[in-house]
């Protein structure tokens, strides 16, 4: 829920500065970056790896 709110706010702020056609590109770029950086989610807990 927090991710959706943040993404919506960033999308509307970005659309105010740049053409509306580029806002979808921006949203997908942010989604990809977040999934690479935090694959467990924004508030996901860290799990210890069992060897």
Describe the protein in words.
By secondary structure, the chain is mostly helical. The chain has one domain. The protein is 61% helix and 0% strand. It is built from two helices and no strands. It is elongated and about 50 Å long. The chain starts with a helix and ends in a 14-residue tail after the last helix. The model has no long low-confidence stretch (mean pLDDT 81).
Features:
elongated; single chain; mainly alpha; 51 residues
Task: Draw up the topology in text.
Layout (H helix, E strand, L loop, with lengths): L1 H16 L5 H15 L14
What structural category arises from helix and sheet content? mainly alpha
Q: How many distinct domains?
A: 1
Number of helices: 2
Largest sheet: none
What gap, in angstroms, lies between the N and C termini? 33 Å
Principal-axis shape equals elongated
User: What fraction, in percent, of the residue positions are helical?
Assistant: 55-70%
Overview in brief:
The chain has helices at residues 2-17, 23-37. The chain has 51 residues and is mainly α.
